[in-house]
Amino acid sequence: MHIPDIPAGAPRKPLIRKAAEAFMAATLALMVIAVFSNVVLRYAFGTGLVIYEELSRLLFIWLVCMGTVVTAYEKRHLSFDLLVDRVGPRTRAAMGALAALVSAVVLGMVVKGAWDQVIAGLHSHSPVIGYPLAIAAAATLFMAAAMEVLLFKQAVLDRRRDRT
């Protein structure tokens, strides 16, 4: 097996991003195995494993939240820039700052709500597997907190570097 060389000057993926992608690949693989196994069991034997339904739901929650963070890291979320493209650079900068502020407030509210759900979920358990429901709520907490950090990095640190 030949692994192609990375061209000189091509950016390398940070280790944390590689870990996130590996986590998402493993999560997706486990989901496919669980769902496919249940389909085969239902059609071939008239039964299924309820554990797989609950497990695939939990894995899907984590997959979506991790994918959202990776997308935010790559700055590939959908954006509506029809108005922003038609204004001058000072107005564009002001609109960007306002959007970052609104995003920070909303993400802060999501962090608070997700934290409350984690606390509430510590004493509640899933009906079949029995894991604490805080594990599912922690996915949203992780997503919002990571996106808050990325927003700070992009809005504050990257802009300071761009000015110098």
Considering the chains and any ligands shown, give keywords for the structure:
164 residues, mainly alpha, 2 domains, elongated
Could you characterize the architecture of this molecule?
By secondary structure, the protein is an all-alpha fold. It is built from four helices and no strands. The longest helix is centred in the middle third of the chain and has 33 residues. The protein starts with 14 loop residues before the first helix and ends with a helix. The mean pLDDT is 89.
The averaged pLDDT comes out at 89
User: How much helical structure, as a percent, in the residues?
Assistant: over 70%
Poorly predicted parts: none
- Fraction of residues in β-strands: under 5%
Structural class: mainly alpha
Oligomer: single chain
**N-end to C-end Cα span:** 45 Å
Largest sheet: none
Order of helices and strands: HHHH
Radius of gyration, CA atoms, in whole angstroms: 21 Å
Kindly give the count of domains: 2
Described by the principal axes of the CA atoms, the overall outline is elongated
Number of helices: 4
Task: Give a summary of the structure in a few sentences.
By secondary structure, the chain is mostly helical. Helix content is 72%, strand content 0%.
